Amino acid sequence: MWLKQFVLDMAVRCGYAAELEHPLPGVRADVWVPGARRARVEVQRVPTDIPTRTGDYPDVVWLLRETAITPSTKKYLFGSPCVQVRISKKLARSTETIRIPGRPWEGDTEVRISASATVLHLRHGLHVAPGEKFFETHPIPLENFLRQVWSGERVWYPRGTAHSFAGWVLATEYERYQQWLKAQQDTQQALRAVNGVIEERADHPVRPDPQPAHPASAPSQPAPAPTPTTSSDPATLAARHLAADKGTLTHGTQSSPVIQQAEPGWMQWVHAQPSIEVPNGWWKRVKKRLRIGRR
Length: 295
Known about the structure:
Shape: elongated
Helix content: 25-40%
Region (Disordered): 203-234
Largest sheet: 8 strands, mixed
């Protein structure tokens, strides 16, 4: 009865309109906490059939005293929404921290009331060595435990979900566990894929393809020299004829020798007889015609 009253007072301090021995269809709750995630609290001091008594109200939290846990009922502790409640006090006249069962209903003071056995915590954060479990059990004050359960911060997970046995885990820590678990699964999948590729290559080694023989490329032929073109315009032809008379070519190359013939005497006379009565340029035209006639 003392523990029931302790739970009731705690619920009232948390702001719930809790009550003792609240009747429900087919069952009576030791402590009823309306508005809580798990409104039904059962305090058990003797062994009982917990799965049957859970019945139609699975949102229950069972507080089991040491006297309620026997070899035949221990399976309920680790398979149902249960937690072990320990009430202890420090041993007097002891230099070491030794705790013994406490009896606050008989006047013991400075007692510690804790929830243990199925309260799970992160073991080493996100850095867990291969083969280690992600969670480990660690006792916490019963008042903290019930506050977290009523608010939904701490959730009960069945056997094999977060641990090898059923237990109570903070929702934030379970989310981190899910992330860690997915990372481990992705790593294992990647390793299996790599090992599969290695085994396949070992069974079927890849042989290099022979390099095809490339025919020797034919030496490139030099481009034909451009054929010089002969200009046929009258100015160029006249210049070449004039250069031929003087014994040279326009491009500075030596031409074939030209045999110079002596002018006849009458031609010399023509050169020496310009007359002012003859129109200007007449003698030049005559000499040009005579020269052409000689060719």
